[in-house]
Amino acid sequence: MDSEVEYVTLVSADNHKFIILKEVASISSMLKSSQGFQEGETGKISLDMDGDILECIVEYLYYHYKYKEQAETGDIPQFNIPTHLALELLVKADFLDI
Amino acid sequence: MIPAGNRRSKIRPPRKSLVSSSLESSTTDPTVDYEKSWSILSNAIIQIQNKSVSNLSYEQLYRKAYILVLRKYGGKLYDNVAALITHHLLNRRDYLVSLTDSEQFMKATLTEWDEHLQSMKFISDVLMYLNRVYVKEHKKLLIYDLGIQLFKDNVIKYSDDQVGKKIVEIVISEITRNRNGEVITTNMYITKLINMLELLVESGSGDIQFGENYYQSSFEPAFLASSETFFYRLSSEYVNYNLGTRYIQSTSKFIKDEESRVNFYLPESTYPKLNELMNNIMIKDKIDTILSLPYDQQGLSYLLQPVITNVIEGSNERYHIQDLKTLYDLIGRIDEEQGILRNKLKQHIIAQGEDLPKQIRRSLENSGEKRPNPATFAIKWIEAVLKYHEEFAVIHKESFYQDSTVSQAITYAMREFINVPPSARKDTNAVNAPELLSIYMDYHIKQIGKPSPSKEIDAINTSDSRDYVDIFIEKSIQFLRFIKDKDAFEAHYANHFAKRFLSSKSGSQVISSNNKMGIDIEELLLSKLGEEMGTTSLDKIIRMNKDIKLSKDITTDWKKLLSQSTKKELIDVELKICNVNDWPKSMVKDYKAFTSDENGQTSFIWSKQLRPTIREFEEFWFSGKKNDNKSLYWSPKFGSIDLRITYPSRTYDINLSTYAGIIMLLFAPQSTDNYGNLVSAFEENKELSYEEIKELTGIAEIDLKRHLQSIAVAPRSRLLIKSPMTKDVNDNDRFKLNEKFKSPSVKVKVLTVSAASSVAANAQTKVKTEQEEEADEVKANILEGRKLEVNAAIVRIMKSRHTLKHNELIEELTKQLSNRFQPSISLIKQRVEDLIEKEYLKRDEEASNVYHYVA
Fold first, then answer.
1. Pick from B86, B381, B452, B816: most CB atoms within 10 A?
2. Do A37 and B132 touch (CB under 8 A)?
3. DSSP A84
4. pLDDT tier at B544 (50, 70, 90 boundaries)?
């Protein structure tokens, strides 16, 4: 696989950039689908959400990526969601189809 | 991450502005907002359909659709998308319809289909949120599936299936071209188009079943119909070759090709339907005609001809093994049981088998034997039948995959032609298998019994002769298994067995020559036959064999006694003492005729040279009360005498039949000269008339003439001179010793002129020949034996069943007796009547077809 496209950059509305593994981004089917379009060419996906929310989402994606193998056994640490972001995260998760 | 609990802050509500900044203003007028969003989305869709995806921002489009769905515009969006796609597809359809070249059309259709699927994938990505929320809730087709549905309705089926029909027509015509042997370049298109048709699933409106795809509903029926026509045309073309092998080869090849064609192009579900069509039209309807084609059109008779050629000419042709195998495969496609093949094989085997005797006679005639004797024919026929069986074993192995039902049919058919029922033996070529087998075995037993010419190399040959014996026994038993009327075989075998013993020059010699191999061939055969048929049925022969052993023992005892005796006039005797009840009637029936005079018959007169020995033996026989309850009769019909006669040329040891010996003894010197020495017979020069000989010996006329012929007419053994010198013996002929008798060797064996030829000479005397008499007797024995066996079987059955209907009884009887013979219905009826008369059975008083056992 081409090393350049192994990473994608997620850009928040307030211009925070998160460079994450494409494979990790693909956990969200919305992010995955975007790869056929312009976003696939530029390697950059602009998202209409704040940096803190996006940070939390990226953390979750990595958490999911890391533990998906063990998900069956249930032997995984809890993922903590900052309480004040909970509601907004819920909406964004629906948007991203996570 | 900071634990949530530590902050204890309020949950922040989602920022409205982030959901959609443009929504702020449009909450009051959402319609305007929809139009705006839709125009962006519809433009994007058109762009996607024009294959320029890479300058579209997915995030924006996705968000537009997302918002529309959130704002409950899902339904509207869905319908608009459908309408937009429909519009696009109708345009593309017009383009397809405009294409006239079929290959171009196929290619273009596939391109449209591929591109459509590709764009539908992108559209479906953009409308992912619509799929997830609206489609799910309203149980609509997913966008992608909607796309396929729309393709089917607006491209393929639009305007009365215009495009669909064209596809079906083109694909079928391409496949037909391929069937005709043309190389087609559209293979990949065909496969892909068929895949496409399979994906076009019907939504279940009207008379079309739900879930059925366009392939099943439209392509397959059309394809099968065209295939049917094609198969009919092709197979009648093959049949019209009027050449069996060509049909078999062409059909097999076409079927093979068609199978790989079908596997390549069509889904598995079509295969069984097509296969059935193909098998029915190309094989089932035609195979009977093909197999029945005459020889020159290469029907089955042609394929099986090498079998006969191999058997008769001893060649080893393997011409049609492959065709027969192909034939088996073809028939196997329509009938796993191979019913047609089995029936046809049976017919042909029976026909070939019935023709065998004629062919053998012809080949015997060609090989120069003017009057083939029965033994030669029997040997040839038995060998031929066994070879025939071997030939079929090869075909069975090489062509018929050792199919056991086919092998059964072969065996059945062979039994059919081997066992020609006596009633059907009118034709001279019809065979009497039980008798022929017995003749065959008789011939070989005699061969084995003959001392081999070079005794020195016997040690080396032992294994060879052992093989010969084994092969012979194996062949005999193998053939015996084909014989239905085993009882008839037994009767013939008993007859031959008795003859072998009684006419052997010396019983012990036959045995001793076998002893070198450590076996007695007769014993060995008896035990083998016993294994095969059960010892009870061989009862008679076994008892005869006992007599033989007993005779040997008595001979040994007698010889011992003789060596101690001082009486000079006693002569060496080899004894053969037979119990008249067990030995064939034709041989023993007149045993009393030679001693009693009751009915005025001329009684036989033993030569005076023999009488002391006879007396002495009788004394020995009855001594010690061994044989108190038996009586002993001497029969001159059998056996032989060794005479040493000094002719002027030299002294010869002559072996001749008892009758001939006794005639010769009449010419032995009787008088003594002046010094008390015996005068030479030639000095006496005795001359006797036919009448005198008849009187002096008491030999019955037929036998007398026959034996006189043997010693006075037959050129090699002319011990006597007959005057006048004619071929036949007449009543006023005169006989005297032949002074000029000469023979190359010291030992001379006088062969008795066969009864048939001596009678032929006396054609006027309408007496049955010995052989005919024997044959009649064997026949009578068989019939008599059957009566007893049927009686016994009926009683056995009725004893256990008590009451039976007529038909059940017949069925049971046939089953029980099947390995002995086939009882005829009239015989059974007759036996039942007999048993009713004897009060073993009685008829039911009401139902006349029911029998009861009377205890």
1. B381
2. no
3. G
4. confident
Q: What pLDDT sits at residue B368?
A: 66
> What percentage of chain B's residues is helix, strand, coil (to nearest 5)?
65, 5, 30
Most B CBs within 10 A among A32, A42, A48, A59, hence the mutation to make, goes to: A48
Q: Which pLDDT band, with edges at 50, 70 and 90, does B833 fall under? A: confident
For residue B22, the model assigns a pLDDT of 44
Describe the crossing of helices B158-179 and B187-199 by its angle, rounded to 10 degrees: 140
CA of residue B619 relative to chain centroid, distance: 60
State if pTM tops 0.80. no
Which residue in B24, B55, B58, B124 has the most chain A C-beta atoms within 10 A of its own C-beta, making it the best mutation to test that interface?
B58
Could you give all domains of chain B from N- to C-terminal order, each with its CATH number?
22-228 (1.20.1310.10), 433-536 (no CATH), 639-767 (3.30.230.130), 771-853 (1.10.10.10)
As for the ipTM of the complex, it is 0.89
Query: What is the tens place of the pLDDT at every residue in B136-195?
Result: 888 888 888 888 888 888 888 877 888 888 888 888 888 888 888 888 887 888 888 888
- Name the pairing type of β-strands B850-853 and A7-11: unpaired
What is the percent of chain B where pLDDT is above 90?
A: 0
What confidence tier does B205 reach under pLDDT thresholds 50, 70, 90?
A: low
How far is the alpha carbon of B34 from chain A, nearest alpha carbon, in Å? 19
Neighbours of B28 (CB within 10 A): 8
Return d(Cα B137, Cα B617) in angstroms, integer.
124
Neighbouring-strand partners of residue B851: B804, B843
CA B221 to chain centre: 44
Question: Could you report the per-residue pLDDT of B400-453, keeping only the tens digit for each?
Answer: 888 888 888 888 888 888 887 766 666 666 778 888 888 888 888 887 766 554
As a whole number of angstroms, the distance between CA B120 and CA B97 comes to 22
Q: Give dist(CA B297, CA B289) in Å, integer.
A: 11
What is the pLDDT at residue B708?
A: 85
Whole-angstrom distance, CA of residue A3 vs CA of residue A26: 16
Does residue B62 belong to the interface with chain A, where contact is any CB pair within 8 Å?
Answer: yes
Classify the C-alpha dihedral B239-B241-B243-B245 as positive or negative: negative
Distance between CA atoms of residues B717 and B750, nearest Å: 6
Q: What pairs with residue B688 in β-bridges?
A: B735
Helix, strand, or coil (residue B285): coil
Coil vs helix vs strand at B845: coil
Q: Which domains does chain A have, with CATH numbers?
A: 3-96 (3.30.710.10)
Per DSSP, the residues of B23-55 read HHHHTS-HHHHHHHHHHHHHHHHHHHHTT--TT
A74 Ramachandran zone, left/alpha/beta (phi>0; psi -120 to 50): left
**Please, which residues bridge with residue B749 across strands?**
B655
What integer best gives the mean pLDDT of chain B?
Answer: 79
- Tokens 């064997």 -> residue: B778
Partner-chain contact B18 A97, CB within 8 Å: no
Of the partner residues B5, B14, B121, the one whose CB lies closest to the CB of residue A88: B14
Provide the shortest C-alpha distance from residue B129 to chain A (in Å): 8
- Distance between CA atoms of residues B106 and B120, nearest Å: 21
Does residue B1 sit at the A interface (CB-CB below 8 Å)? yes
pLDDT in tens, B89-115: 888 888 888 888 888 888 888 888 888
On whether the CB atoms of residues B190 and B197 are closer than 8 A, the answer is no
Query: What integer pLDDT is reported at residue B203 of this predicted model?
Result: 65
B4 and chain A in contact, CB less than 8 A: yes
